[in-house]
Inverse folding.
């Protein structure tokens, strides 16, 4: 499958767990914006789907060099563009043949923080 000019593969052996990680609207917007690798040293590609009818946005995190999806996050926010009360990561999916739930949450947290520049945790 090709997404934004990148050949990507979905999660090979997915597992899903609930997660209640609050986001400020600044962090929500960073997740929606994603991350486009500029060089081989950029190890991640992050992109978001459009919101579904309930306002859930799925953020996909791929290894840039292989195109393999590692993590997807379901993020609940408002249905409009003006997110003022923040949002929540409500669900995480990962490849269960590679990671445990704890490892997947740690990896997602680190990608959000170090690649996307999120502060994480709700801040008014």
């Amino acid at each position: 499958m090709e997404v934004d000019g990148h050949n990507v593969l979905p999660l090979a052996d997915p597992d899903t767990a609930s997660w209640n990680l609050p986001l400020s609207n600044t962090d929500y917007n960073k997740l929606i914006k994603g991350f486009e690798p500029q060089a081989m040293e950029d190890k991640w590609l992050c992109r978001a789907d459009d919101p579904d009818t309930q306002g859930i946005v799925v953020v996909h995190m791929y290894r840039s060099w292989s195109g393999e999806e590692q993590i997807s996050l379901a993020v609940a926010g408002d249905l409009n563009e003006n997110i003022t009360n923040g949002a929540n990561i409500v669900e995480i999916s990962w490849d269960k043949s590679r990671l445990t739930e704890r490892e997947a949450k740690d990896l997602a947290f680190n990608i959000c923080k170090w690649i996307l520049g999120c502060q994480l945790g709700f801040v008014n």
